[in-house]
Amino acid sequence: MHNRAAFEILRDPYRNKGTAFTEAERREHKLEGLLPAAIETLEEQVDRILFQVKNQETDLERYIQLRALQDRNRILFYHLLIQDPERFLPIVYTPTVGDACEQFGHILRDPHGLYIPVTARGRVKEIIANWHETDIRFIVVTDGSRILGLGDLGASGMGIPIGKLSLYTACAGVPPQLTLPITLDVGTNNEKFLSDPLYTGLRQKRCDDETYYAFVQEFIDAVQEAFPKCCVQFEDFSMNHAVPLLEKYRDEICCFNDDIQGTAAVALAGIHAACVAKKESIGDQRVLFLGAGSAGTGIADLIARSIELETGRSREEALKSVQLFDVNGLLCESRTDLLPFQKPFAAKAEACDDFVQAIQNFRPTAIIGVSTVFGAFNESVIRAMAEINDRPIIFPYSNPTSRAECTAQQAYQWTDGRCLFASGTPMPPVDHQGKSIKPSQGNNVYIFPAMGMAILATGAHRVPQDAFLAAARSLATQVPADFFEDGMLYPSRSKIRAVSLHVAADVARCLQEMGLARHESKDWDKQIREMAYSPEYS
Questions:
Q1: Residue range 312-345, pLDDT digits in tens
Q2: Of 27, 59, 80, which residue is a domain's last?
Q3: pTM over cut 0.90
Q4: Where would I find the H helices in 330-374?
Q5: Are 147 and 64 part of one and the same domain?
Q6: Regarding beta strands 179-185 and 138-142, do their DSSP bridges make them parallel or antiparallel, or are they unpaired?
Q7: Which of 102, 158, 239, 347 could, after both became Cys, cross-link 183 (CB 3.0–4.6 A)?
């Protein structure tokens, strides 16, 4: 009689140990002969993967190899990531995931997660029921319309939910079986993909808004019924849908948008850290944004909220500390083209269509780039900031690297090494006047995995804006004092797990104080450490 059960074990990423199965386990599960004779430890398996990864020529090839490992053996995959996050997070997520998404149909091996096409309207509940796990606590969902700074990638955007949820586990210890990546395939307007014979999504243009919002509503309803304890993270939705979806559902279900709220929290943490470095307060800062989409307005809103709470200023006064600039110039009251979510940020100022002039007029202490325009922080921009600030804050946050507003090398060179710098994507060390400076990366990875663990631990049924304030403050307090000497504004990514668990505990305390926690604790630090998933063979 053929032994299909053994093959099922070897193909189940949650049960498969590969060569680490003991002799007793091999006999019990009838695995003898299906594996080579050597019985290896988890660390010996890691050594083999490290050898294989080292011998790949590109990070995209390393991404493909690690994704295959994730689908084969989850314990080994997460053990590897936790062992050296500084090395592997940029491979499984940004910046490499951007390349992976652009070539997703060409590198696809085993599909991962759920793909729900708009052509299945009326049957979304049925499709969700096809998933093999019944207790899902976190869904990261995208419609592929605005993947990183790369734009409309349609179904090829699935690499983002997969990568984000991998970081939930690797960084903050959320058990992987509780997570589910989903792509809502509503078509694509990307002609390159529509004509690509290897594109894996629907070959049709994006649906109209009436169809779109009805489809999303059916999805939300199906998720609430199938997974009532689930938190939905909206990811990489286009500006015209991201804000309305968040506004519609934030008070109805447990959800958040990482591009808006996670980005805001990590940026605010960087501003707080820069204040420490400059010995100033958040109330002393004026922040000018290049880019006024959902990310820019989200960051501006959270910075204003922080100023409001910490200085006692009114909301109206706090908003005077932020200004936004987009492709049509400064967001000001005379503009007639502003979207509803942009109007609260319209400045009482003269129209201006030159970013350098906007700097000279507003005299910001910080500029934050969320424009996805490579090189937009040119020499004139950076030098204008250096002229009016002893230590200008320069945050080119667009990613991947090909969309960054400036490089670290440029920022340090054009400010004579005086700037406080952080980018949204990893950048190499900079040599300036005989000193090696390691640029900070203000990546959302410091926020959203910790937010997930806090929600899991507390059983929170909503995710309020102040939870992201708590996360930002917690992150900023974890920057070692000696980092400021080198202009570093975020903790080392090598410590990301400890940092994430600390942030999660602070957010859990915030949720409990706000009365949103179903589960309470007197020691969230201890409880969250004990809850965190540890990838070890049992």
A1: 999 999 999 999 999 999 999 999 999 999 999 9
A2: 80
A3: yes
A4: 355-362
A5: no
A6: parallel
A7: 158
